[in-house]
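Follow-up to my post from last week.
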Amino acid sequence: MSEQLKVPTMAQCMAEGRQPEVLFWVGSAGSFDDRAKKITKAFVKILNKANVDFAVLGTEESCTGDVAKRAGNEFLFQMQAVMNIEVLNGYEVKRIVTACPHSYNTLKNEYPQLGGNYQVQHHTEFIDELMKAGKLKIEGSTQLKGKRITFHDPCYLGRANDVYEAPRKLLQSLGIELVEMKRNRNSALCCGAGGAQMFKEPEKGNMDINVLRTEEALQTNPNVIATGCPYCNTMMTDGVKAKEKEDSIQVMDIAELIANSQN
Amino acid sequence: MNYIPNILFAIALFVGLGYFAKNVKKLIRNIKLGQDVDVSDNKSQRWKNMTRIALGQGKMVKRPIAGILHIIVYIGFIIINLEVLEIIIDGLFGTHRIFLEVLPQSVYGFLIGSFEILAALVFISVIVFWIRRNIIKIQRFWNSEMTSWPKNDANYILYFEMVLMTLFLVMNATDIDFQAMNSGNVISQFIAPWFSGLPETTIHIIERSAWWLHIIGILIFLNYLYFSKHLHILLAFPNTYYGKVKPKGQLNNPEAVTKEVKMMMDPNVDPFAAPAEGADAEMPAKFGASDVQDLSWVQLLNAYTCTECGRCTSECPANLTGKKLSPRKIMMDTRDRLEEVGKNIDANNGEFKDDGKQLLGDYILPEELWACTTCNACVEACPVSIDPLSIIIEMRRYLVMEQSAAPVELNNMMTNIENNGAPWPYNQMDRLNWKDE
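User reply:
Got it. Predicted complex:
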């Protein structure tokens, strides 16, 4: 990205004696995975454009522990949680936004019992609010107009937390044609990455889950498969490659689609 | 002499209800083998869930054909059972259609007429259910965990209902006075001609036999419940009440682990301190679950409530792609093992004797547990709020925290988190590098 991103850290803000309105929780995938980093930057571009007073933890952020918890390692999860909560509470963080539904779910639902109480939003909910408040607009002619886009519901956003409409509203604001897969919203099929599956080979079976889900997406004959989760993004991208459709179908995060619609 | 039928009826009723009560006690005892869990929260939400999901059949219609047929059978079951009240009074006091003396004839006719229509509808629905299972062979009824007993159990239930509905209609059709009254015999008037050539005494004998077989059939069916997946007709209500009221994505944070973690992170804790008096008793025997007694009683209630419809398995991404995992099997295994443990306790004077078996390994394999994506599709699909995912997670906890038996790639991932705060082997100090790339 050519333009300079403004990414203040909590430590800098504290040194300047100010409290940012919201913390952007980048997450491990958003920090290290090459594809997910693009989503992170797209979201920051939106935050900058809308002049949101935000900060990141930077090197003070650590894995939420979601994958460890789902893998059964409750010790490791709670160690991560307690350390993160100490940092977050130290900075008196009240509000968090994240582009990762797994971090979202863990921070929102599993940290409170361990002493971390924050208002947590998924980036699609946050962007939706920015649009509603008039702080962000879809600008100019977007090359997406009229394109067919299908939305793959991330399990940890949808079924896990009942967020189905914010991402769809954002997509529709782009003037695209939203086409639903047969399994959508609370009956959406998982991409195959949750529950720590992202980090291991699947058990023996007759097919990979991401390929099955990609087939369902391809049935809608889309130009773009949109999603709101870095793991889903990886799985669907791999699925599209397995189906040799990578030249005609893009897998994009909603933040990227919105960021691209900005001048 | 005239009192013999009354006495026989009272005995049948007493034996039928008594045996059922005995088994219900056993059922409660087995469920209570589970770990205690606090369910006193969110009372109003819990009542709402029970009303909507169990009473209102709210999740059944997600699959419209099965859902609507099920609602017919459900309503039929509840309403026709009003008739059982009359049968019991008649049986005990030697009366005949006692409500006819209490209610105006038109009201009585209306009631029996509705029962007859429902009985016919239930009969038809049950036939369709049977066809779906045995002729159309819908996939979820033929998965690998549907071995001979689960398949037979399902069919026995359908046969029971067919027979009971038939007996009810025949009983009305052969009741000469009732037919003569010609009010409420909406369906039975079409059955009555089948018997018209017979002498009146024979018709009366058929009527009495149908009446007796009907009520005895009901008592047998009641007692069959305990041995069958059909327990859901009772347990769906408590199960939806005690079901999860938190967001589906939220897993519990076991307190035992929290205590350990807090101690580890507290610089003031003396690592060599002798445990306080009686502190040992507070330590959990193990982390996670390897057998049914390690699960919570709500999870055990879940297992007894499961009616093996297979909606969970038919939505499970792992199962759909040929993996061994089937959420329905998790529930069936949990119940089978729980019943085995219960029988063990019965055979050993109320004390469980180690039988060298457990839920993990003897029933549920690690390969099944590790195939789960924790996507909650099974939890969402269950029409009676069963949570197979929570059992899978408890058993993964045992595998990881007690046995260090995670797949090797997951061990690598966890080591990375421990060392550098990310599931991948990247340096924590590089977390913000994306900003300048």
